[in-house]
Amino acid sequence: MIGVFASAVLYVAHVLATPVIWDGRASLNLTAADLDSSTGPFLTVVKGSEAATHYSQLLGDTIAPTPLWGTDSEQALSVSIDNSSVFLPGGSNPQYGFRRTDIIAAVDGQHDTLITQMETGTTVFHFSVQQDASRPLNYSHEYQVAFIEPNDGSHIFELQLGSPFTNPTGQLPAADAHSFKVLDHALNVLFSTPFTADAWHNFAVEVDWNARTLAVFYSQDAEPLQSVTDTVPNSSAASGSAGQGDFHFGVLKLPLVNSADSPSNQNDVVHYGIQEGTTEALLYSGVFVEDASGGVSTGSDSVREA
């Protein structure tokens, strides 16, 4: 029954156009200077001490973006971390436990108004991810690579890779370390799929902000998005403005436990733990947010501008 229902919903979604609220598909005229100054659709301040373009590069015609939405007007984006990727929120209290480069949905550096626009009613968060073979991840670590983060630091949903952080440390890498995991606010795994090489992995997460539910869609390369979950409760997330926050994508690498740290500090993943300092990266494309009132866009003929 679920398969029949999902097929009907997908057919309707595929032929209906839904308006884009925020478009993070990097246009061909977006420049490195735009990344450094947070001009355009991205806020690029969550990073290490170097300029934004040390960690994030527009790829032009060197790597084709996901074909799901057509490739004529978009360029893919590389997001990387290295040992300088220590973020200082507010210019102090460095996050030595993390290595992170986050791209935040914004319009010319402004994001507060956009949050309300993206996170009212029912909206859909799209993002496509590909491996960077020259700068692979270390799958013994946990990576949080797409999420919405309210002020309390939780995630409304999260796309995760690698071995989830545990204290004490378990077997590394974890059995499912090379798979994507889509998590709800309570960290339940809603969907998992292998992160295979040489393919764009396309995701869409539908968020009903009033009913506090989630639904996940997935495909590879040019294949239309398919429903891969039921609509499921996300009731542990706060309601109203307390449950709203910035939409992030990038590379956030958690540490491993350092036995030399005190017991209390071993659980402080933000400020303590082991990081190897290697350069690692992911490729992104097809990042945008749409209003779901007309259905979920599943491919290039089912999405339109607002």
From TrEMBL:
Leader peptide range in chain numbering: 1-17
Keyword tRNA-binding: no
InterPro entries membership: GH131_N
Presence of the UniProt keyword Signal in the record: yes
Domain Glycoside hydrolase 131 catalytic N-terminal: residue ranges: 20-295
Keywords from the UniProt entry: Signal
Pfam family, one: GH131_N
Top-level taxon in the UniProt lineage: Eukaryota
Name of this chain's protein: Glycoside hydrolase 131 catalytic N-terminal domain-containing protein
Source organism per UniProt: Lentinus tigrinus ALCF2SS1-6
Lineage: Eukaryota, Fungi, Dikarya, Basidiomycota, Agaricomycotina
